[in-house]
Amino acid sequence: GSGVEEAKIPMVESKGAAKARGLLKEAERLKAKAGPDAAAAKDMNESAWKKIDAAHAKVHTAQQQISEAKASMSDARDLEHKAAQKISDANALSDASKHTLNVARATKKEGAQESEAAKASLAEAEAAGKK
Fold first, then answer.
1. Helix or strand run (H / E) with residue 102
2. What single string gives the DSSP state of each residue in 10-63?
3. Which of 72, 80, 83, 118 matches a 20 to 30 Å C-alpha distance to 57?
């Protein structure tokens, strides 16, 4: 230097600076106080998301099960339809068999009648031949 000592200026704090410092301290105190609450809220949030994810997974599983059940119902309807068709076919076959049996009985009856008529004719012929 110039040999002139710089005068030491006492630290004078303006009202605004003091107020700002007070607000800063209050903010730090609130932050320290809120820290555990914030951590707990973060944990709760993470837990909530895990529960939401689990719920989504359950919904997805349920949708798959509904899909599978619908497919099973569809298969069951197909089987029911096929069974009904087989019953219908069996009934038709049964009806055809009854008809065939009736025709056979009628033919047998006609045959028996014709046989009786032939025996009668033969008996008449024999009787006529004996005269």
1. helix 15-130
2. P----HHHHHHHHHHHHHHHHHHHHHHHHHHHHHHHHHHHHHHHHHHHHHHHHH
3. 72
So what's the pLDDT on residue 74?
A: 93
35-65 pLDDT tens trace: 888 888 899 999 999 999 999 999 999 999 9
pTM as predicted: 0.41
Where do we find the tokens 């339809």?
Answer: 81
Helix (DSSP H) and strand (DSSP E) numbers for the chain = 1, 0
Measured between its terminal Cα atoms, the distance across the chain in Å is: 186
| DSSP conformation class of 58 | H
Take residue 21 and report the two structure tokens written for it. Answer: 């410092």
Question: How many CA atoms lie within 13 Å of 102's alpha carbon, on the beta-carbon side?
Answer: 6
